[in-house]
Write a structure and sequence with these properties.
alpha+beta; three-stranded antiparallel beta sheet; 67 residues; 36% strand; 2 helices; flat
């Protein structure tokens, strides 16, 4: 399964770094996210969000319910 990781870093001037990892479950995704986090932002990170990545081919938009 693909997961999207968003890391907030930078102290008073917040910045965000987003990347994808692949793992069988959330626990594995957290481990992959930690291993893939760029070392230059790891010491400044104060929030990490993990979500299942949206597959753009399967995503539905408003008005497409009947399709």
């Amino acid at each position: 399964m693909h997961y999207q990781v968003t890391v907030r870093y930078g102290g008073g001037h917040q910045r965000y770094h987003t990347y994808l990892v692949e793992a069988p479950d959330a626990s594995g995704a957290l481990e992959a996210a930690a291993a893939s986090m760029p070392p230059e932002i790891a010491s400044e990170a104060d929030l990490v969000e993990l979500r299942i990545a949206v597959d753009p081919e399967r995503r539905r938009y408003m008005g497409e319910e009947g399709r």
